[in-house]
């Protein structure tokens, strides 16, 4: 029994590393849409981030930003065998802040105008030439 375990241990010790194939196969990479932001870890130890251009059964094309020339993007191709890991970077799905600020300003201004008109109608006597043109129209006749 000891001889069998020793032999099995020696075989496993000198055998090349065999990775288990998980549910994260290349088929999932092929489903990624162009423009998807990913981080790629290569077997050489380098990490590259960018947006996917195309995915084929043998390679992946990635549009990366050039670190030397700011604003210049370059197209790089990575072979399937050279890629160790691909991480899909999800962008936060946040609303547009300018649109929300504009809506808030318009709603706040409208509420201020309405409350000012109501106050004017209830606390001032009706005179010709009121500051609010429509305040006399909102006034309820006694």
Put the structure in a nutshell.
The protein is 35% helix and 25% strand. By secondary structure, the protein is of the alpha+beta class. The model is unreliable at 19-23 (pLDDT under 50).
Features:
142 residues; alpha+beta; 5-stranded antiparallel sheet; 5 strands
What percent strand?
15-25%
Number of helices: 4
The beta-strand count equals 5
CATH fold call of the largest domain: SH3 type barrels
Shape: elongated
Question: In CATH's first tier, which class of the largest domain applies?
Answer: Mainly Beta
Largest sheet: 5 strands, antiparallel
Poorly predicted runs are: 19-23
Description:
The chain has helices at 2-14, 26-30, 97-123, 135-138, and strands spanning 37-42, 47-55, 59-65, 73-79, 83-88. The chain has 142 residues and is α+β, with helices and mostly antiparallel strands. It folds into two domains: 24-88, SH3 type barrels, CATH 2.30.30.100; 97-138. The protein has a five-stranded antiparallel β-sheet with strand order 4-3-2-1-5, with no helix packed on it. A hairpin with a 3-residue loop joins strand 2 (47-55) and strand 3 (59-65). Residues 19-23 have low confidence and may be disordered.
């Amino acid at each position: 029994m000891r001889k069998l375990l020793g032999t099995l241990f020696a075989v496993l010790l000198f055998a090349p590393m065999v990775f288990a194939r998980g549910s994260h196969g290349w088929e999932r990479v092929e489903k990624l849409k162009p423009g998807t932001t990913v981080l790629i870890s290569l077997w050489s130890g380098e990490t590259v981030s960018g947006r996917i251009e195309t995915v084929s059964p043998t390679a992946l094309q990635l549009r990366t930003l050039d670190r030397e020339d700011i604003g210049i993007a370059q197209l790089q191709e990575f072979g399937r065998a050279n890629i160790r890991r691909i991480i899909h970077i999800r962008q936060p799905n946040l609303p547009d802040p300018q649109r929300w600020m504009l809506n808030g300003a318009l709603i706040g201004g409208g509420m201020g105008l309405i409350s000012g008109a109501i106050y004017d109608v209830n606390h001032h006597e009706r005179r010709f030439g009121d500051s609010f043109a429509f305040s006399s129209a909102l006034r309820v006749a006694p």
